[in-house]
Amino acid sequence: MKNLRGKISAKRNYLSIMYIPHNKGGVKTIRINHYRTTLLTTFAFMLVALLMLTGYTLSVVKQNKDMIVQHTNELNAIMSEKEQLQAVIAKQTKELADNAEIITTMNSIKTISEEAIDNYKEQYENMIVAYIDSDIKDIGTVSRGDKKPASFKEDVAELRSLISLVESAKLSADDVTSKIAQKEEQLNNYLDALPTYWPVNSRTTFSGFGMRFHPIYKRYIMHDGLDMAGSTGDPVYASGEGKVTFAGWNGGFGNVIIVDHGNGFKTYYAHLSKILVKEGQWVSKAQKIGLVGSTGLSTSSHLHFEVRLNDKPTDPLYYIEP
Ligand SMILES: [Zn+2]
After folding, report:
1. What's the CA-to-centroid distance between 48 and ligand 1, angstroms?
2. Does domain 205-318 have CATH number 2.70.70.10?
3. C-alpha of residue 135 to centroid of ligand 1, in Å
4. pLDDT tens, 53-90?
5. 207 CA from centroid of ligand 1 (Å)
C-alpha cells in the first residue's frame, strides 16, 4: 500500500496533455512536470495582470487627457470672462474719472461764483462806504478833472462784469443755481438803485456842476447840478430805482421831483413842465417820471439834474453814463 500510494502521488506530479488526431495516427501524450505547470500558470496570470494593468493605465491616461482638455476649455472661458470683466471695470473707471472731472469743474465754477458774489458784495459795500464816508465836502467841490468819476465808473463796470460772471456760472435748476440766481437778483438790485442812467434823451449839456456865471443873478455862484438840453415836453427818466420823496413846486426849482435811491444817494429833476409821479411812489431805473420844461428860475427849457450824496450836491457826471 505504501508503494502504491507513493506511485499514485508521484503520478500526480505530472500534467498530461493528450493529442488525439481524427485520422489514423497514434495518440500523442505530452507529459508536463507539475512544477512547470505551476510556473506556466503563474506566468499566464502575470501576463493577464500585466495586460489589465496596461489597459487600466491607458484608460487613466485617456481620462486625464480628456480632463486636461476640459479644464483648458474651462480655463479659457474663465480667462475670457475675466477679460470682459476687466474691460467693464476699465470702462467704469474711465466713467468715474470723467464724472470726477465734471464734479471738479462744477465745484470750481461754484467756488468762482461764490467768490464772485463775495467779492461783489464786499466791493459794493466798500464802494458805498468810500463814497459816503470820504470827505463829502471834497466830493461836492472837486472839479471834473478829478479821478473820482473814472474810479466810480470803473467800479460800476467791475460790478457789471462780476454780475455777468455770476450769470455765466449758472448751471441747472439745483440749489447752487437758485442760490446764485437769488444773489444775482440782489446784486442787480444794488446796481439798479445806483443813479447811473442819463435822465434825458439828449446828451448835450450846457452848464456843468461847479462855479459859474449865473444867467439871471449875473454873478459867479455855485451850480449844484448839470443842465441838460431838452425841449418842453421831452421825457425825463429816473436815473436809478428808488422812492419819490418829493414831487411838486419848490421855488427856483419850479416843478421838481426828488428820488431817494438809498445808500445816501438822491437825485433831483428840476424845471419840469409836468410831473408824472407822486410822493411815496417807487420808480424803476429809466422809468419816465416827468416832462422837460422851464418852470421856476429858468431862462429856457432844459433839465436841471442833481445827484446828492448825504444831501450834499456832487457832480452828476461822476455817476451817470452817456
Ligand atoms: Zn441848473
Report:
1. 138
2. yes
3. 24
4. 888 888 888 888 888 888 888 888 878 877 877 777 77
5. 7
Task: Tell me which amino acid residue 92 is.
Answer: Q
Query: Which single residue is written with the C-alpha cell 439828449?
Result: 202
**Does the reported pTM lie above 0.70?**
no
Set of cell numbers at residue 134? 470820504
How would you class 293 by CB atoms within 10 Å of its CB: exposed for 0-12, middle for 13-18, buried for 19 or more?
buried
Cα-to-centroid distance, 208 and ligand 1 (Å): 8
| The three cell numbers locating residue 253 | 426849482
pLDDT at 281 over 70: yes
Burial of 262 per CB tally in 10 Å (0-12, 13-18, 19+): middle
Calculate how far, in angstroms, residue 225's C-alpha sits from the geometric centre of ligand 1. Answer: 5
Residue spans of the domains in the chain: they are 2-57, 114-191, 205-318
Find the 234 Cα to ligand 1 centroid distance in Å.
17
